[in-house]
Amino acid sequence: MAHTLPTLPYAFNALEPHIDALTMEIHSQRHHKAYVDNLNKALEGHTELAAKSIEDLLRSIKSVPENIRQAVINNGGGHHNHSLFWRIMGPNGGGEPSGPLADAINEAFGDFSKMKDTVKQNALTQFGSGWSWVVYDPNTKKLVAIKKPNQDSPLSDGLIPIFGIDVWEHAYYLKYQNKRPDYVDAWWNTVNWAAVNEEFSKAKS
Ligand code: MN3
Fold first, then answer.
1. Cα-to-centroid distance, 194 and ligand 1 (Å)
2. At the N or C end, where does the chain have fewer CB atoms within 10 A?
């Protein structure tokens, strides 16, 4: 069963003015599609690996043969990261989370605004391309903020990504050019906290 590009759950212009429609279209239909296509290409002839879910594949990355491992890290990571990214954004986003997610953020970071500061700091200090993540650590049962280069998935470190900011230039350059801090500040207005709460409850179960 080949991996497929998920349908964006909202229109390309749904995140305006924070993320422009052209960026959303190119990002989802070209960048994400290339990750999906290249992942499928890397898995050709590897029937057992190709049958695994993307999560299983990234969690057990060390069992992927060396000659295709980097391709799976890059393209499988790219596929999983972007699928999550589209899910946790939406129109009329922003504000603050509630429920169990809000409690877990307060416990891990002190409060919502301290969490935002940490995530922004990680986004701005990620040199070159990568992601600033909030992940769930199943060992400590706590949320943690981390940054990862390229498309490296937190799943391969035994961590479960709850939400994250794509800080590759392709995510913001058309509208924000070199102003990554402005993109990060605007990005919070796109977050669908109800969807992040769902990711959090999936991660805990
Ligand atoms: Mn991207």
1. 22
2. C
- Could you tell me the pTM of the whole model? 0.97
Ligand 1 midpoint to CA 23 (Å): 10
Distance (angstroms) between ligand 1 centre and the Cα of 168 equals 6
* Ligand 1 centroid from CA 201, angstroms: 25
148 & 76 share domain:
no
Q: Assess whether 160 and 191 both reside in one domain.
A: yes
Give the chain's domain count: 2
pLDDT, tens digit, for every residue of 127-149? 999 999 999 999 999 999 999 99
Question: pLDDT for 61-120, tens place per residue?
Answer: 999 999 999 999 999 999 999 999 999 999 999 999 999 999 999 999 999 999 999 999
Assign residue 51 the CATH number of its domain: 1.10.287.990
Query: 197 is written with which tokens?
Result: 């709460």
Q: 104 and 200, same structural domain?
A: yes
Q: State how far the Cα of 76 lies from the Cα of 156, in Å rounded to an integer.
A: 11
What are the CA-CA distances from residue 76 to residues 93, 139, 147 (Å)?
A: 27, 24, 18
